[in-house]
Amino acid sequence: MRYSMDLHYVSTRDYLNRVTASQAILQGLASDGGLYVPDQLPQFDFSPEDLIGKTYQEVAYEVMRHFLTDFTEEELKSCIALAYDSKFDTEEIAPMTYAQGAYYLELFHGKTIAFKDMALSILPHLMLTSARKNGVDREIVILTATSGDTGKAAMAGFEDVKGTRIIVFYPKDGVSAIQERQMLTQTGDNTHVVGIHGNFDQAQSGVKRMFNDPVLNEKIREKGFQFSSANSINIGRLVPQIVYYVYAYVKLLENGKIGAKEKINVVVPTGNFGNILAAYYAKRAGLPIAKLICASNENRVLYDFFSTGTYNKNRPFQVTNSPSMDILISSNLERLIYEIAGESDIVNAGLMDSLARKGIYEITDQMRQKLGDFYGNYADEDQTEEAIREIYQTCGYVIDTHTAVAASVYGKYKAETADETKTVIASTASPYKFLHAVMTAIDPKYANVEDFDLIGPLSEISGCPVPRAVSDIVAAPIRHDTVCEPEQMDQVVCSFLGL
Ligand SMILES: *Cc1c(COP(=O)(O)O)cnc(C)c1O
């Protein structure tokens, strides 16, 4: 069964730029610089009670068919089956743990033990299906710049997927030891990793330059290739993230933790605003969510935005112990701005132009009134560590630094509002991924111990087995050694493609 056959995606900067879901997935970003959004937000044709007893894969199908309406049932089910399989270390895919008054939705049971796996394990299959549907027979070359997490998760997703290649650029001196080891040991004949002598911004600019270089694009097309992006603004990443909020709700119902139609709150540690936007879409589609609690670290642009109505990126960039949220431009916020501007491409484009030119924009009071679903706050470094220590001491549960930002912000929210609504906290990374920060927060005696030597102690105190993602890389051979200057990125790509 298909739902709304004629759902299309339009650019947030030009309403006339209108494509199908599969075309939006292939393109990633709209050519006018905008982001693709559904031209009308779908309404779920089921109620959560109907999904009781269903597997993650079954729930994924029920949710995703509402958004990817040009995929057939067979296509979508096949993508889902290929993505959510034994790559995950639990059949539940996204299990929940109750601790200290909240349900932690663990989104880190995939290959790279961070929540990016939830979407990046299905994106390659959605992309290949999209290529087939649109008559694209060229090999798809994914170009990605990463500050650590995305690149590894994207490679793990695209590894040995026929008809694709992936090239990841990372700042040679800008990632953690574990992150670098994870990338350099990446297997798969179609994966390439390149360290650049530069920072993340230079890697990002280099990738954007290649996407927009007509000569290079023509050259690779002649050889049967075409570029695409696995960036978090792709709706092929956003839509799979809606699934786990529905799944979590259904599991709470199934286990008698909430009653039918009872509203829940959701807390999301936020960087690029992708994960929390997925929760917002779930709410808009009919999932009973009350508050969407947006948790930031010291890069608190979003907190300031929710409390003042002004988005201002003109401030120092803070390096924190939750690095995957160290971001001053939350790209996916543009989709929310478009919504609250009454789906006005003109208003949105004006604000984004102001952001690009001056680094700041201010929304109207009328737009602010539409943000009532959101609550924003932030946690500094000490508060983040305190949250890790406290939940460990009271419940024996170990959470990572990103999740701890959410836990801390949830504490502030409860203190302010005394709201007792049942709450789900998105747990976005395994504590094994940020070993040093986590262990030092629990006990300062670990401060001088190397990351790799903390694997055993964490396993001991948490009682959680060491994930394959960690044990595998300890002894795995290094398979990538390319390093280049930022100006040489194009040449490196050409040489990988045999041009
Ligand atoms: C990417 C990431 C986030 C931020 O998610 P957004 O969708 O960018 O808001 C939070 N935690 C971890 C561990 C991440 O890797």
UniProtKB/TrEMBL annotation:
Q: What class of enzyme is it?
A: lyase
Identify the NCBIfam families for this entry. Answer: thrC
UniProt cross-references to InterPro entries, sorted A to Z = Thr_synth_N (IPR029144), Thr_synth_N_sf (IPR037158), Thr_synthase-like (IPR004450), TrpB-like_PALP (IPR001926), TrpB-like_PALP_sf (IPR036052)
Protein name in the entry: Threonine synthase
Q: What is its EC number?
A: 4.2.3.1
Q: Which organism is it from?
A: Shuttleworthella satelles DSM 14600
Any single Gene Ontology cellular-component annotation:
cytoplasm
* Residues in Threonine synthase N-terminal domain copies: 8-84
Q: Which keywords belong to this entry?
A: Lyase, Pyridoxal phosphate
What top-level branch of life does the organism fall under? Bacteria
Pfam families tied to this protein: PALP, Thr_synth_N
A molecular function GO annotation: threonine synthase activity
**Span of domain Tryptophan synthase beta chain-like PALP:** 106-425
A GO biological process held by the record: threonine biosynthetic process
* Gene designation per UniProt: thrC
Which family does the UniProt entry place this protein in? Belongs to the threonine synthase family.
The UniProt entry, under PANTHER family, shows: THREONINE SYNTHASE-LIKE 1
Say if the entry is tagged with keyword Iron: no
Sequence positions bearing N6-(pyridoxal phosphate)lysine: 116
Provide the cofactor list for this protein.
pyridoxal 5'-phosphate
